[in-house]
Amino acid sequence: MNRYDVCILGAGLAGMHTAIELHEAGLSVCVVDPKSVAGGASETPVGLANPATGRFANRSWEAERCLEKLTARLEQISTSTGQKFYRNSGVLRPALSEKIAGRMRENVIQNEWTTGMVEWKSSAEIEGMHPGLTSVEGGVWVPVGLTVLIPDYLHAMHSFLKQHAVDFMLGSEYSYHSKNDLWEIHFDDQNSIAAHRIVVCAGIYSKNIECSKHLPFHAVKGQTALLKSDQPISFDHAVSAQGYFSKTDKNEFVLGSTYEHNFEHENPDEQGKEFMLNRFKNVHPKLAASSQVISQWAGVRASTPDRKPIIGRIPTKKNLFVFAGLGSKGLLYSAYGAGLLKDFMLNDHPVPKEVSVERFKP
After folding, report:
1. Which residues, 6 or more positions from 82, have their beta carbon under 8 angstroms from its beta carbon?
2. pLDDT digits over 241-253, tens only?
3. Which of 101, 148, 182, 273 is an S-S bond match for 137, by CB 3.0 to 4.6 Å?
4. pTM of the entire predicted model
5. Residue 68 exposed, middle or buried by CB count within 10 Å (0-12, 13-18, 19+)
């Protein structure tokens, strides 16, 4: 039975970033997932790292630190593997009503953004940047925003970690239990491993773990679609308004996303597609008229009541940790959150109260 310092349950954004943090700290690591790398919610084709989030472009939690850590990790993996899976696209956030414009403008002024992160643009400026895009009184420009092909990034990270002696057990269901200060993980194919610590990074499936049932993970279904335009796409930035869209090729782009709190299945469906297309017509009528859906994707994210991740030790079990509940900001939070968990596990640095597991008592 192979023995590791840490076993990580989940090979999505949270799990892979945690794996690389703990590996760099000198620990032996095995990543376990019953599906595959990027087999759950992290399989979404495109993600935006956008620090100005929500309808009114609110400042996200630890915006600068999260973006800085993610950017450094993306560059590290891209340089090491020779793959390019992200771009500094910027994110344009047009206001679609006077109320939204007023709140957005307030957030730009009052949030004391670091210079160069967020700017207010008038309607005329937005028209100059992106002809045909609907805007009422202007909107927010986030020049530091990133567009990431998330599955490509995670598979590149997988290759990088394997080359650096991180092991993976993928595609097999598992069970685990504690025994003599160790965790034993048993797989359906009869293999077994042992670990001194377990980190649960299983997204919405984290709620299935007996010791974490008190944690308020809420399932939110998101659907996206890949569209192809009959005209070349002239803009490189991503757009976030009633969802988002971002170019993936000279005439293809990803459109997303739904936020379904009540759903009967986890598959893409016609209702989700029509919902996204109807909103898209309000935001960019010309591009919507020239585009056709060529494929769809759906996944289920784990959200929390305050829309921040849950990081720390499960209080009722020794050496069992959790990093989950990243919701729609998984790309932005994952690299920085993994660093916080590592510092807590190895150096006993307290996890910030805003994201600590202790804010939800069993």
Report:
1. none
2. 999 999 999 999 9
3. 101
4. 0.96
5. middle
